[in-house]
Write a structure and sequence with these properties.
- By secondary structure, the protein is of the alpha/beta class.
- Helices cover 36% and strands 23% of the residues.
- It has helices at residues 83-96, 101-117, 131-142, 168-184, 204-217, 229-238, 245-250, 271-279, 288-293, 301-306, 325-343, 352-364, 397-406, and strands at residues 3-15, 18-30, 33-38, 50-60, 62-68, 120-126, 147-151, 153-154, 190-192, 195-196, 221-225, 261-265, 283-286, 311-313, 380-384, 414-419.
- The strands form 4 sheets. It has a 6-stranded mixed β-sheet with strand order 3-2-1-4-15-16. It has a 4-stranded parallel β-sheet with strand order 5-6-7-9. Strands 11-12-13-14 form a 4-stranded parallel β-sheet.
- The longest helix is centred in the last third of the chain and has 19 residues, at 325-343.
- The protein is globular, with a radius of gyration of 21 Å.
- The structure holds guanine (GUN) and fe (iii) ion.
- Guanine binds next to helix 1.
Length: 420
Amino acid sequence: MDTIILRGDICFTPDKDHLETHPDSYLVFENGICRGIFSKLPEKYACIHVKDYKGHLIIPGMVDLHIHAPQFAFRGMGMDYELLTWLKNRTFPEEAKYADTEYAALAYGMFADQMKKSATTHAVIFGTIHREATLMLMDMMENTGLTSYVGKVNMDRDAPVELLESGAREGAADTISFINESLRRGYKKTKPILTPRFIPCCTDELLRELSKVRIQYDLPVQSHLSENPGEVELVKKLMPQAKFYADAYDRFGLFGKQAKTVMAHCVYSTGEEIERIKENGVWIAHCPSSNVNLSSGIAPVRKYIENGIRMGLGSDVAGGQTESIFRAITDTIGVSKLYWRYIDADAKPITFSESFYLATKGGGSFFGKVGSFEEGYEMSVVVLDDSVIPHPQQLSLEERVERSVYLGVDVRGIRAKLCI
Ligand code: GUN
Ligand code: FE
């Protein structure tokens, strides 16, 4: 039996309303599965070496439910655009470069390095339309130690021709060959995910073909939903038969139920759409930094929590400027305060424990039993040395975690990352 024991100041959110803390305690995993937290190590573990992180914080790894690997190269630039002009002027020209595998190797190498250094242990990732470059990205992600889903993007309209599938059937065939090759490579931690970019870039024919591919391989799905007013209007024009935006995916079996699905944003989801999200068991990836940068708006996260909708956080690099999920946690809280102040006085701001929960156990549920230190959960741990930012006073464990997240201790203070 492979047993791993960590000692330190342990903190996690078994439920959204409370941050559970265990000062100077032992966290035990057997064969990668959590077996409990002990203030005194039980006798049966006496002979096992303890990884001693006394004085350091031990928290679950962060889960990024929505990030674009090819956009990492231009993060922090072009932030004065709105979504649709940003796609046209910044995103598509950059993504077109990934036809060149040399450029892809260079850029994806930098992305994978940063993901490895970050506090993120699980990620759901967009590539580009290019099969070779996306497979290269999967090779690199496999070597980072993260668990990830990676998608070759599908799009066949409303983008530069070099970013379009040559036809709906051809796009599906290329996607099948991407999936087959990714399965042939036998990755342990990296899996393919079906990735129609969003309705404005996908014809009905393409969605129909992808739906067949999805069933054939029983793939999960990722895409964008109700992000920005301009996009929502465009979808109404492009698919007038859809009752609402989500219905445009659902008509093709690409929206939850048997298809495990994560949709980024949901800023403008209406009552019917929210019902459908809930009914179909779709995960929402809340991406507050991106929603600010691209002038998209503020998602009604309180409403989603009250409705019991599955939800996690996404960095949405490069709509969001950083891959740091710590930043997504604090932005979630910040924008929820503006929502409460300006939009809906009944929508109580999101608390720190709620936001931390979304970043760990909330998003982690997309991967299974991930994001908590309850018994039976998979090993996914980040160790932080919060003394890299000194303080003069005594702090509780709760205060140390909150402060570490707000002050970005993930930049300089990660001491270890352990995953199954
Ligand atoms: N909608 C379609 N493509 C994209 C993208 O790359 N980023 C974001 N934020 N929204 C999108
Ligand atoms: Fe996105």
